[in-house]
Amino acid sequence: MSEKSGIVILGIFAADTAYKAKRLPHIAETLMGSGFTLGPGGKGSNQAIAAAKAGGKVTFISRVGNDAFGAMALAAYAEAGVKANVMKMEGVSTGAAFIFVDEVSGDNAIIVVPGAAGLIGVEDVEANRAAIESAAIFMTQLEQPLEAALHALSIAKRAGGITIFNPAPAGAIPDSIYGLCDFIVPNEVEAAELVGHAIETDEQARAAAHTLVDRGAKAAVITLGARGAFYHTAGQSEFVPAFSAGNVIDTTGAGDAFVGGFATAISEGRAPTEAVRFGCATAAIAVTRPGTAPAMPSRAEITALLGS
């Protein structure tokens, strides 16, 4: 087999409809908002665009509908330099997401409807087996069906690639998935769901990461928002502080920015803790801008913030 290269990502595209307001409305209440944006989103799609803009060679596997949102997805990949192994479906709408953004803090709440990408299955993975087997990095999440994610992780692992699993959105996962993960990368909410206890302190983050590695993951990276991230393997533990790149405007794509930047750094052979720093810098820039995919920074911006 030829030398492995590039990053392959399995995930969904969803058109992000983001509404900025002082709070969420109550049932039967109409609330005036202060801003609206429409743009490309979906965790896997955001991560693909983040990784490509950060300098990675990226292939994205997904499904979209033959509609305006599907066209938006393909245009976004063309602009970012992502190779789109994306099936276009008739009679099924492209995924979409409702995003509430707090106009003061920039924090968010999200409802996602996967649409066509909710039909991603083992057959999509098999159709892209060659790409997965030849990739240096394979990455996936949980917005598409779990069966497809498990099958793809298994193929990548058997082929000797590096696997990155972002267990998002939070939910139950089978124990068998941990052994397929070179890196499991949850945020603090997702990690708490997996391990069954709150993650509000550094010690709780350390304990959670230890649990994830004990279950079979080679390494755990727990992202902690403004506190940075915690990296843990059987032989190393390290907190990596967050960067500041300006005022926080919108945290919606922060996790995807981190994971995309992290994957690019790992694909370049950087040490895992350096890759975590690279991911933190990527996320720090993204949160200073509105939106998700459009907020992802360029390689030059990330390098400037890192100072190297």
CATH class membership? Alpha Beta
The CATH superfamily appears as Ribokinase
Q: How many strands appear in the DSSP assignment?
A: 13
Strand content: 15-25%
Report the order of strands and helices: EEEHEHEEEHHEHEEHHEEEHHH
Largest sheet, in brief, is: 9 strands, mixed
Mean pLDDT: 95
Which characteristics define this entry?
308 residues; alpha/beta; UDP-N-acetylmuramoyl-L-alanine:D-glutamate ligase; 9-stranded mixed sheet; 4-stranded mixed sheet
Structure, described:
By secondary structure, the protein is an alpha/beta fold. The chain has one domain: 3-Layer(aba) Sandwich (UDP-N-acetylmuramoyl-L-alanine:D-glutamate ligase), CATH 3.40.1190. Helices cover 35% and strands 24% of the residues. The protein has a 9-stranded mixed β-sheet with strand order 5-4-1-8-9-10-11-12-13, with helices on both faces. A 4-stranded mixed β-sheet has the order 3-2-6-7. β6 and β7 (108-115) form a beta hairpin. The model has no long low-confidence stretch (mean pLDDT 95).
